[in-house]
């Protein structure tokens, strides 16, 4: 396995695990926080989650681009492009679906925004899961 493939697998599988934890545990619990502490909770959530995911997400993006630019022996370019497309879906859905809900929630508790965040976050969950599967497939095909 090449260093780029290893970095891609590690970062993508990490991000897939993170999004499943966020989707099934963390986001649904937002409704339990309470209105009095919600704004402070959201600010701390955004600070902590950003610190945790910034580097792996950057590694995922850079390594996905590198795999498209120069696929390792045994890996067809279409496979690397498909994985990059899945990574792109995570970016577009984060910016277009999740960030707007987090913006609403940074002003205070809003159960509609929480439920919208949980329901639309399935797009990111599916995309990161698909990308993780593709990253593992790419790793298995490297000669």
Q: Could you characterize what this model shows?
A:
The model has no long low-confidence stretch (mean pLDDT 96). The chain is mainly alpha-helical. The protein has helices at 3-26, 35-69, 77-105, 111-141. Helix 1 packs antiparallel against helix 2 (35-69), helix 1 packs antiparallel against helix 4 (111-141) and helix 3 (77-105) runs antiparallel to helix 4 (111-141). It contains four helices and no strands.
Short key terms for the protein model shown above:
143 residues, mainly alpha, 4 helices, 0% strand, elongated
Helix and strand sequence:
HHHH
Largest β sheet strand count, sense and barrel closure: none
Strand content: under 5%
Shape: elongated
Helical content band: over 70%
Q: Over all CA atoms, what is the radius of gyration?
A: 17 Å
Could you outline the blueprint of secondary structure elements for this entry?
Elements: H1 3-26, H2 35-69, H3 77-105, H4 111-141
What's the short version?
With 143 residues, this protein is mainly alpha-helical.
């Amino acid at each position: 396995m090449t260093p780029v493939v290893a970095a891609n697998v590690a970062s993508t599988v990490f991000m897939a695990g993170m999004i499943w934890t966020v989707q099934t545990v963390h986001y649904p619990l937002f409704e339990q926080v309470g209105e009095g502490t919600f704004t402070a909770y959201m600010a701390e959530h955004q600070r902590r989650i950003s610190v945790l995911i910034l580097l792996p997400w950057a590694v995922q993006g850079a390594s996905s681009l590198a795999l498209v630019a120069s696929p390792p022996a045994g890996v067809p370019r279409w496979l690397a492009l498909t994985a990059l497309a899945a990574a792109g879906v995570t970016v577009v859905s984060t910016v277009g679906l999740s960030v707007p809900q987090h913006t609403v929630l940074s002003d205070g508790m809003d159960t509609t925004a929480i439920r919208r965040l949980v329901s639309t976050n399935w797009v990111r969950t599916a995309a990161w899961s698909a990308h993780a599967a593709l990253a593992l497939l790419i790793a298995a095909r490297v000669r």
